[in-house]
Prior knowledge:
By secondary structure, this protein is of the alpha/beta class. It has 16 helices and 13 strands. The protein has helices spanning 3-11, 18-30, 35-48, 52-63, 92-101, 120-124, 136-146, 159-171, 177-190, 211-227, 250-260, 266-282, 289-302, 304-315, 351-361, 405-414, and strands spanning 78-83, 105-110, 148-152, 195-202, 231-238, 246-248, 334-339, 344-349, 377-380, 387-388, 393-399, 415-418, 427-431. It has a six-stranded mixed β-sheet with strand order 3-2-1-4-5-13, sandwiched between helices. Strands 6-9-11-7 form a four-stranded antiparallel β-sheet. The chain starts with a helix and ends with a strand.
Amino acid sequence: MRAVDIIIKKRNGEVLTKEEISFMINGYTKGDIEEYQMSAFAMAIYFKGMTDLETTYLTEAMLKTGDELDLSAIEGIKVDKHSTGGVGDKTSLVVGPIVASLGVKFAKMSGRGLGHTGGTLDKLESIPGFNIQISNEEFIKQVNEIGIAIVGQSANLALADKKLYSLRDVTGTIDSIPLIASSIMSKKLASGADVISLDVKVGSGAFMKNEEEATKLAKLMVQIGKNCGKNMTAILTNMDEPLGLAIGNSIEVIEAIETLKGNGPKDFKDLCYIFSAHLLIDAKIAKTEKEALKMVDDSIKSGKALDTFKKFIKAQGGNPLVADDYNLFKKSKYEFKIFAKNDGYVSKIDALSIGNASCLLGAGREKLTDSVDHSVGIILSKKVGDKVLKDDLIATIYSNKLDVKKEIDMINEAFVIENEAKELKLILKIVK
Length: 432
C-alpha cells in the first residue's frame, strides 16, 4: 500500500477502505508518511468529501492512535456533553450537576478555551483551589461517589488528531465537515461515555455560520457515534447572540450557580433544561421530554442540583462556599458601564464581537500557552428583543486595565438597536 495511491484515489472521488484510511493515519502519526502527503490527503478530503462510513473509519483510526478511557468501573450509564464552542457557554457547569443529582453519571474530559470561545476548564479554575488534573482512579471513584467529575483531557487522547489539526490549520483544510466531525468524535469516543450529547452552535459567534452546514455536521457526528455503539443526540443552538448575560470566567461560574438556584437568564436556563432532559432520555432515566423536564425542574427547585455542584467542587479541591459567597472569587479592579445611544429594541448582539472584546480584556487566549485572567469579562444588561431607552445600561466591562476604549467600541458596535422588536429562536433543531 502506498500513500500516493490512496491520495489519488480520494482525489478522484473514490471511496476509501478502512485499511487505506488506517494506513494513512497510522503512517502519519508514526512519521512514516510525510506532512506534504498528509496535506494532499486532507485537501483531497476537503474537495471530494467522505461517506459517513469513511468518516467513521477515519474517526476510529484517529481514536486508536491514543489512549481510550475505560469507564467500565463506573456503575450505571455514563454520559458526556460537548459543545462546538460559543460565547458565554457555561452549560456543562449546570447540566452536569442536574443529571448527576438524578442518578446519571456525568464523566467529562474537557478542554481549554481558544480565541473568542471560553473553555470549561478555565471557568472551573476560577474557583479557588479547583483541580482539573486528577488520576483516572480518582476520576472513577469520584463519579461513582457523587455522580460527576470534569477534568482536563489526557495529552495522549487521539494523538493523530492533534497532529492533523495543526496541519489543517496551516493548509486551509479546517472547515471540512468530515475532518471536523472525526476530530471531535475521536476525542469524545476516547473519553468512554455510553451517551454523548452534542451542542452544535450556529451563528455569528460559532464556528458553523449557517444552519445547513451545521445540520450536516450534527447528522454526521450522530451517525459516527451510532456506528460506534453510542447513544447520541445533537442539538443545534443559536449563537447569533451570547448565551446568557455573563461572558468571562468567574462571572460565568456565578451565572451557572445562579441558574442552579433557579435564577439564571431565561435563554441559558432553557438550554440547560433541554440538554439535561435529553441526557436523561438517552440514559433511559426518563421516557419523554415532558417527564424529563419535570425531573430537571424538581432537581433545581429542591436544591439537589446545587448540592451536587457543591460536592463536585469540594471533591476536586475547590472551595464549595463560592456557591454562597461570590466575594470568594477574584475580582477585577475596574468597572466600565456602557449605555444605549438611542431608543428602540435590541435587534442584534454580535456574539463574535462580544467574545473578541472579552478576549482582549484577558478572559480568553489567542494561543494555548497564553494565561487567562479569571476575574475579567463582560456582563450584558440587555438581550435581543429587549426594549431600550437612550442612556439605558446595556453592558458592564470588568477589567484590570484602565484603557478599554477598543473593547467599549467593539461592544457598542455589537449592539444594534432598531425600531422593531425581533426574537431569536434558541433551539434550531434536534438530531438523533
